[in-house]
Amino acid sequence: MELLYDADGTPFVMWGENLIQLERMPITEKEYVEKAEKELRETPEIVEKAVAELREMLKKDTSLFVPLQDDNYLMKFLRPSKFYPESAFKRIQAYYKFRQSHESYCSNLVPSAVKPAFDHSIISILAPRDQHGRRIMLVESGERWQPRLVPLSDVFRGVQLALESAMSEPRTQINGVIVILDMKGLSFSQVMQFTPSFAKMVVDWIQDCIPIRLKAVHIVSQPYIFNMLFAIFKPFLREKLRSRIFFHGSDKQSLLTHVDPKALRKRHGGLLPEPEINGEVLWKMLHHYEENFKVANSYGYVSNNNKR
């Protein structure tokens, strides 16, 4: 399976009859417009007011360098905050404070510097959207993940990069993301890669920092030893996220009650044809947007306020 390019030079890949690409175009479809209004309070009047108020709040935080005049950037934080500017402002602050506090995980987040997780097909966002229009991210957390080749830090950096890509899509901002964690073959040596401090960092990032609507986490093919791993994360999960975690084990029908088989791989009970799209194809697609990632990496808290 190879990467193709449309007339505008936008990369895409075909998986069966599905054309898959990063969908950065604005929302025009009636169903999405209505969903945004119903679930996110998104109307022209509310959007205009929220964008203006958020811009003013950001102007007052002189230590934060972000693209104030870029409405698309502001919308990325306003949509998951349901257009409450104060909430969006706090999310922006938390997002960049996290990146500042965890520099080893968050610096230089560009495809050229985050290749291992994709080389080994540990992370994928290249699948059709589910029946609710949600982007699906698959993370191979079991036998397909070899920590000596792809350290846990590289997995987390890859996850960040993949979700950064999804965050730029208006459709994903509205519909959200679901995550599938495939734990098949999880071993004790893999569990030992995780520490409580790492678990807390990841959970804090999900719950308080990243501007994305995480609608569900589906854990599949988990062996008994997974209980040991989940116990490390559980103390840090608030009720909202905990209620969105589903454990399916080897029961593929259980997963299918949540996710349309047309959006799932055959090994997960779905209908997507083999071979699957490998990580190299996804990396090439993300690498096409390398310059965009470099610009995004220039934002954040700065010691030299003259940047503004």
The SSE order reads: EEEHHEHHHHEEHHEHHEHHEHHHE
How much β-strand is present in the residues?
5-15%
Give the CATH class of the largest domain.
Alpha Beta
| Mean pLDDT value | 95
- First CA to last CA: what distance? 44 Å
**Widest sheet: strand order?**
5-6-7-8-9
- Major sheet characteristics: 5 strands, mixed
Question: Domains counted in the coordinates: how many?
Answer: 2
CATH topology of the largest domain: Phosphatidylinositol Transfer Protein Sec14p
- Cα-based radius of gyration, to the nearest Å: 19 Å
CATH homologous superfamily of the largest domain? CRAL-TRIO lipid binding domain
Protein name: Alpha-tocopherol transfer protein-like
GO molecular function: phosphatidylinositol bisphosphate binding
Domain CRAL-TRIO: 111-276
